[in-house]
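Question (not urgent): is this output format expected?
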Amino acid sequence: MRTLVLNAGYEPLSVVSSRRAALLVMRGKASVLAEEGAPIVSPSALIPRPAVILLHRYVRVARHRPSSPSRRGVLRRDHRLCVYCSRPAGTVDHVVPRARGGQSSWENLVACCSPCNVKKGDKTLDQLGWKLTTTPAAPTQHMWLPQELDAPYESWRPFLDHTAFGAGAAAA
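Got this back:
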């Protein structure tokens, strides 16, 4: 079981194991906002299993844009859907092929399914007559939130501001 950790300002900070969350509560660093599942049993205590905890002190998190995109980041940004045909994607493609001077940047990399990647090869979109379903861009701030928030547990939903998560939360 995973536990949602909210910063002192009630914004999602991270997702940790239930045991780690219980330890934060026992040490007085957090409060339990929601419980779920069987309690955690220790030799000396029976501890409710926290589903959502709130930190008592605000933790300042430095969120910097990545210097270069990663395969995982591109697939997450595009919701693991091919930007050419909207089928599930498992690979990354350069919109402007590297053989034609395309860079490995957030604006040139997109999620792509294997059949479309093979068909496209080193051709341009104009040569194939293809259009992108979305325009690739550097990730927004919601991309730095824990990946578990893309499909949150039901017990977390009352504590999440869905407007902050973009399309990933709207689909969840």
